[in-house]
Amino acid sequence: MMDNQENSQSPLEGTKQVANRWEKELVKKLATASLLEQRRARRWGIFFKILGFSYLFLLIVLWFPDKFNLFEWESVKSENHTALVQVNGVITADTEASADKVVTGLRNAFKDNKTKGVVLRLNTPGGSAVQSGYIYDEIMRLKKKHEDIPVYAVVTDICASGGYYIASAADKIYVDKASIVGSIGVIMGSFGFVDSMEKLGVERRLMTAGEHKAIMDPFSPIKDGEREHIQTMLDEIHQQFITAVKEGRGDRLKDNGQIFSGLFWSGETSVELGLADGLGSSSYVAREIVGEEKLIDFTPTEDLVERLAKRFGAGMASAINQSWNLNNGSGVDMR
User: Fold this and answer.
1) Average pLDDT, the chain
2) Are 217 and 194 in contact (CB under 8 A)?
3) How far is CA 219 from CA 57, 196, 326, in A?
């Protein structure tokens, strides 16, 4: 009887077991398929992200090829060229025209074995005497080391003061007839508010260690001998400037007492005075003087991180700091 009852129940139980196994298999297959689909979607997502970033990077490279120098460096390796190094803007540290960047560009230009001549293109009102002197000295050093590579300075809109200091190290200087050239002088500026303070009834409480530590303080009167001391220093730096120009230009300079007075002239008149050698652009010099029309720009450029940092505050802070220093007479400028 027992055997018969078990036998009579077994078909139903067997059906349930089969159904359970089928459900488990179905759930397992669905779960596996879902995992595979998720993995496949994740892989395609990664692929399309990489593809998107690659496409974006390619667009940036094609849109700003001069910032990456990819095509230029390929050309550098394959053919002779005229190297170009640019000096744009005020010549101070941490700017496009800083000595570090200009000197780096010059060294790379001279180092390349396909460089047949170097064009230093200047568009600057001048700037730091120290930064200008660094660049001048490096040009003179590189010229002695690479005697077979000539250096030409080409002036666009303006090449004044510290800019001309740099240009005078070149073998020859070319200008546009309307360029502004000269301003061979030195300046240090500040403001004086002593009388205004007295009228307003404001007392200046300034404490220093050192008799002349506050020599350029705009709220304090200049003490005896301080003006003469500053003038002596400026005359000394001016003489350094004059010596550098005479060393670079030699007997090409005309005998004119106004050349070193701080005055400036048009490019056309600068040629007559011997401050420049002729009229011409960068492409003219490369084609007609160097003999290699292809210009390759060796000027160092900021990377993306540096540009973003300056855009979002670092550059503003630096500009404010520089402005404060200049207004308080903490630097000597050739402008």
Assistant:
1) 81
2) no
3) 54, 9, 16
Q: Is the pLDDT of residue 203 over 90?
A: no
Helix axes 129-145, 99-111, angle to 10 degrees: 10
Q: Hey, what are 208's tokens?
A: 């220093």
What is the end-to-end Cα distance of the chain in Å, rounded? Answer: 120
Catalytic: which of 132, 161, 168, 282? 161
The CATH code of the domain at 67-334 is 3.90.226.10
Concerning whether 16 is annotated as a catalytic residue, the answer is no
User: SS3 for 71?
Assistant: helix
DSSP state of 222: P
Tokens 């106004």 map to which residue? Answer: 258
Report the pLDDT value the prediction gives residue 5, as an integer from 0 to 100. 47
Site of tokens 């395609």: 44
Active-site residue (options: 16, 49, 213, 223)? 213
- The ranges assigned to domains in the chain are 67-334
In terms of C-beta density within 10 A (0-12 exposed, 13-18 middle, 19 or more buried), how is residue 87 classed?
buried
Is position 213 annotated as part of the catalytic site?
yes
Q: In DSSP terms, which residues pair with 155 in a beta bridge?
A: 122
3-state secondary structure of 172: strand
